[in-house]
Amino acid sequence: MVASLATILLATISIGGGLILFIYAFSTRYAAQKLLAEAQAKWENAKRDIEAEKREAHIRLKDELYKKRTEFDMEIKRERAELERFQMKLNTKYESIESKEQRLEEVNKELTQKERNLSRVSDAQRAHEQKLKGLYEELVAKLETISGMSRDESRKALFDALENEVVLSNQKYIQKVEEDARNFAKERAIGIVVNAMQRYTAEQVAPHSSGVVQLPNEEMKGRIIGKEGRNIKALEIATGMEFVIGEAPEIITISGFNPIRREVARRSLEKLIADGRINPTRIEETVAQCESEIEEMIQEYGKNAVLEFNIQGIKSEIISLLGKLHFRTSFSQNVLMHSIEVAVFARMIAEELDMPNPEIALRGGLLHDIGKAVSAEVEGPHALIGADIAKRCGEDPLIVNAIAAHHEEVPFASIYSPIVMIADTISASRPGARRETLSAYIKRLEKLEEISYSFEGIKKAYALQAGREVRVIVEEDYLDDEAAMQLARDIARKIESEMAFPGQIKVNVIREKRAIEYAK
Asked: What does the DSSP 8-state code read for residue 286?
């Protein structure tokens, strides 16, 4: 009984186990089939996607090929059109060349025909020349027989007679013309200069700026000096001038080379004295105010000088320089008034000479001394400095040369240049225009000649043009040309080291040998 139960139990367990195994195997197979079916579906989907992409890629490739083919066709068409255009141009040029060749052939034929005609004319001319030559020889032979002289003797006698007559007549005529021209030119020049001087009237003494300030009382000197000299130091620093307080009562002297700064210092000091408040701060304010006033005055003086002659096209830089000349003096002559006088004289002389444009002379005369406005800051003669300024400001080359040549530092380029130089001399030499002590003037000229004579080989030395030039004549057998050039440099260096002078001094060394004989 137990054994049968055990058998039944084992059988039941076996059946259950088999049933479970069958169920597991069935479920596993079902899952595998399901997975296989899903994989199959995915494969089909992937295959369809790949086919779709393949078709799209194939379509894109076809589109790209079509596009490239279209572009290529268009490029071929453009190239073909370009080639056709070039072909047409070549055909046109070829036709033009053919036409020119045909024309050249026609011209060549024409020239050949003319050459033949010319050859025939030349042959006929040679025949006539031979005939004329024979007639000429017969005529000469008859003349020799009649005169009893050979051909060469007759020619020489005729030429000698004609030459003597022409030379004598020419010399007499030239001498007479030169003498008449010299007399006429002298009379004409004197008349022009005198007429110009008579037509112009001006003040005999030009105003000039003073460097001396009068004080109301002696106590003012102490206030100007200030505690420990603060005020006067502030004045000197602000103005750039030196204030000299000497023993002279109620006077302060302003010392400095810049005339404009000196005028600023004088005006500033006078305003401070009138105001009564003298301290470093007030000094700086007053000097700044006076500088502004002087700058306005400079512009006003320059504009008035230009407006007086109604001159157009003057640059502002030149107007400012003209205004600065009002504060500059030359041997006590106000340079701006001197420039105005030179402009008037130059225009008068140009009008008397019937010059085509007297305004050039006027303009050159007005601007001839603008270099003096900056001569303290720029090295060189004021004439050349002024010419550089005028050239930079676009003035006419004739005016530039008139400015540069009015002291003969450069050659004259037109008649306007000597006119300006003459007008400058007239203005400077009229009575009362300039002052220089006679003793100082004579000493300066004597010093120039003394320096020249200090070198060996000097025959004569002259100081000319109011000391602007020293002319040295050397022994021609003692010095050669190179030594004369070196002598000029040595004299110039010695003058620079031993003398103080404005502008420049021309050293002119002359070496010449003259041969003189007398016909008795």
From this structure: H
Residues 486, 491, 496: CA angle, nearest 5 degrees: 125
Angle value at C-alpha 466, between 463 and 469, nearest 5 degrees: 45
Ordered DSSP codes for 8-73: HHHHHHHHHHHHHHHHHHHHHHHHHHHHHHHHHHHHHHHHHHHHHHHHHHHHHHHHHHHHHHHHHH
Q: Is 214 helix (H, G, I), strand (E, B) or coil?
A: strand
Distance CA 402, CA 368 (A): 7
pLDDT, tens digit (0-9, with 9 covering 90-100), for 363-418: 999 999 898 888 667 777 888 899 999 999 999 999 999 999 988 888 988 889 99
Cα–Cα distance measured from residue 404 to residue 401, given in angstroms and rounded to the nearest whole number:
5
CA distances from 135 to 139, 140, 442, 445 (A): 6, 9, 83, 80
Tokens of 456: 């060996």
Q: What is the pLDDT of residues 68-113, one digit of tens each?
A: 888 898 989 898 898 988 889 888 888 889 888 888 988 988 898 9
Residue 245, CB-side half-sphere exposure with 13 Å CA sphere: 17
Strand partners for 333: 330
Q: Is the pLDDT of residue 185 over 60?
A: yes
Q: What is the pLDDT of residues 246-282, one digit of tens each?
A: 666 778 888 777 788 888 888 888 888 888 888 888 8
**Residue in this structure with the two tokens 């303290």, named with its chain if needed:** 376
CB contact at 8 A, 248 and 289: no
Q: How far apart are CA 154 and CA 157, in angstroms?
A: 5
